[in-house]
Structures are given as C-alpha cells and as structure tokens.
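The methods section describes the discrete structure representation at length, but only in general terms. An entry of this sort, consisting of the sequence and the corresponding backbone structure tokens, reads as follows:
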Amino acid sequence: MLNIVVELEKGNLNPLIDSFGFHRQNLFIPKEMSDAAVTQIMKELVRLNREQLPEVQLAASKGSRILFFNIKDILYIEAFGNVQRINGTQEKFEFYGTLCNIEKIVSPFGFLRIHHSYIISQEYIVSATSRSVKMMDGKEINVGRKYLQKYREMLRTLGIYRLN
C-alpha cells in the first residue's frame, strides 16, 4: 500500500512521520515543494504503480484527528473558504487547506477541477451535460467558465459528451 501524506497549509507532518516512520510505502510531501516537482512525482507514481492505484491513500488531518482516504473512494472534494471537505463513498471529512494543493496531488489519479470550489473524480460521474455533472451521491455541480475547456476534453476522452 502506498500512503501519500500531504502537508496542507495549516498541517504538520511531524505526528504523521512519527507514527508511520520512513518506509518505502510512505511518500511525504511538504508544502514548500514546488508545484512542478509535486506534479512530476505524482505522474511518475501513476506510471510506475498503475497496478497499485486502488491502494493509494490520501491523509487529511484536523486537530489531532487523522483520516485516510483511498483515492478510489473519493467522489469529489469541495471548498468552503479555507475548509475543504472530502466527500467519499463511505464518509465525509473536513480539514484546513487549499484546493490548489490538493489538485496537484490528485489530478494524475483521474480527478479534474471543474469549478473554483470543486475537484471531481471522473470515475463517479453519473451523467453530464455541457455545463454540469451529476455525481454518484446525487450532487449536481456546475462547471465554471474558467474550467470548461479541460472539462469538455475530459468528457470527449470518456465518451460521455460529444461536441459538434
């Protein structure tokens, strides 16, 4: 199993590092790491560990509580200011951070930012139109104008929606 532990804006990796130790299956990403470096690491992980993707986990912490989410179980991530909520198939969890930091981690694993407040998993789209998606839990999310081009490219790739 591969654990990806991400230090978010108000996070502290020290308790996580102490509890896990430095093992090969743990990847610790400090917030000081550049976006390009993080993106390159994630793309390389996807390329090298394609068969292990169902076991990749993302750790989120709030106060003393730490929760691990299997990346394949995340429906979407939404933002309410500095508070982020991971909406999973089993549970929801709120923590402090920014969608920008989360986006660079999860995008190589089939996630797409479609709004300034939403990152969705392509796997859990039930239906889609040219301007919105309906997720497996019934949530309908509008696509922001800034994200329309990437959204439509994703739909063409998935064969969900065809543009004339």
Summary: The chain has four helices and twelve strands.
